[in-house]
Amino acid sequence: MARVRIKDVAERAGVSTATVSHVINNTRYVSEETRQKVLQAIEELNYQPSAIARGLATNSTRTVGLVISDIANPFFTAVARGVEDEIIQHGYHTIFCNTDEDPAREDEYLRLLSARQIDGLIIAPTGIRSERLLRMAQAELPIVLLDRETPGIDAPLVCVDNEDGAYRAVKYLVELGHRRIAVLMGLETISTQVARYNGYRRALQEAGIPLDEGLVVKANPLFYSNRPIHLNSSPPNFLTNNQMTPAAFYALQELLDLSDRPTAIFVTNNQMTLGTLHALKERGLRCPDDISVISFDDHDWAPLFSPPLTVVRQPTYRLGQAAAQLLMQLIHHQPVDPPPPLPTEFIIRQSCCPPAHTATATPAPADEKE
User: Fold this and answer.
1) For the segment 108-163, what is each residue's pLDDT rounded down to a tens digit?
2) C-beta separation of 278 from 341 below 8 A
3) Which helix (H) or strand (E) holds 296?
4) 336 in a domain, yes or no?
5) Which residues, 6 or more positions from 338, have their beta carbon under 8 angstroms from its beta carbon?
6) Which is nearest to 65 in space by CA: 124, 152, 147, 151?
7) For the chain, N or C: smaller number of CB within 10 Å?
8) String of b and e for 73-102 (b: at least 16 CB within 10 Å)?
9) How far apart are CA 169 and CA 76, in angstroms?
């Protein structure tokens, strides 16, 4: 079936295409009788106006772009829900894009969103300098950075206090008596990972514990890795729905091979926490008896593990809401002050205890907040 054009609507209503355009976009007075003829023709022909064409007429498509880095990460799904729930209340719609931490994919989605004439953009950037994003900012497109900073972009950032959250988590491990505390972190181009690493270092420095680079492990923050399993090695005893294994699982192997392996691991991303737990299970290591674990991020599954996970909780839904509210202010040319980082919560459950060589103690009560 041929696509209905504005010309078809005009012919059915017996008016000019300009009059149809004015009725659709409410850009000029049209008599009620003529308006009703046009609306009836639109309904009879099931005409769907082009959002981009309407945007050219009204200078607004009433759409915003949301670019996130990992749609499989529950952190971003909760944030996206907060964004959409807020955006729709303002009569706007959201176009979702997932980059998988790939700068080339990010660039392609930014090109697509530019072509769609979006009214504003919320982006969790890959952290690699993006010339296309710079051009969008220079064109005065309203932009809000979500969770992370990116080089060259002077835009409001909505995030949590990542360094403080990490600092409190590692300080807790130190207070339990741990001295060999490993950190599993993601890409160094991501500002949140750098901030959490800085919090880890600050807690160690404050306790007089030298930084051991051998305890700093870096992994792809995405849950799954396509890394092949070598023929002379045994595959892990778990399989995922697409036959891939958690990247953190491989990243931790050398660390767990150490004769003086760490007594605790601070994991800076919830997806990598799953790989960490898989690695411990494969080695027959018990959490927390052999190795204590703290995860940055709290999700529905965290209290259900055995033992329930001690975590740094982010207000994920609120982050999305705050980013959307800020973007609406920018779109409507309202004054905006740079928002302060939102606080995190440290939730003590049962995945941490004193190291085996110290006096024994029972884990803290479940869901105790600091």
Assistant:
1) 999 999 988 899 999 999 999 999 999 999 999 999 999 999 999 999 999 999 99
2) no
3) strand 292-296
4) no
5) 156, 157
6) 124
7) N
8) bbbbebbbebbbebbeeeebebbebbbebe
9) 22
Alpha-carbon span 118 to 65, nearest angstrom: 7
C-beta of residue 142 within 8 angstroms of C-beta of residue 331:
yes
3-state secondary structure of 47: coil
Residues 284 and 322 reside in one and the same domain: no
Position 337 in a domain: no
Supply the pTM of this predicted model.
0.79
2-6, 280-284, 291-295, 366-370: which has the minimum mean pLDDT?
Answer: 366-370
Residue 131 CB: number of other CB atoms within 10 A?
10
pLDDT category of residue 28 using cuts at 50, 70 and 90: confident
- What are the tokens at 208? 């007089």
Residue 33's domain comprises 6-58
Taking CA atoms, 65 is separated from 22, 28, 111, 152, in Å, by: 27, 29, 11, 20
**Number of domains forming the structure of the chain:** 3
Summarize pLDDT for 161-208 with one digit per residue, the tens.
999 999 999 999 999 999 999 999 988 889 999 999 999 999 999 999
Give the whole-angstrom CA distance, residue 32 versus residue 214.
76
Does residue 338 lie in a domain region?
Answer: no
CA dihedral for 182, 159, 345, 302, sign (positive or negative): negative
Q: What is the spatial distance between Cα 124 and Cα 273, in angstroms, rounded to a whole number?
A: 21
225 within some domain: yes
Phi, psi of 126 (to 5 degrees): -70, -20
In 3D, which of 83, 217, 95, 104 has the Cα closest to residue 147?
A: 83
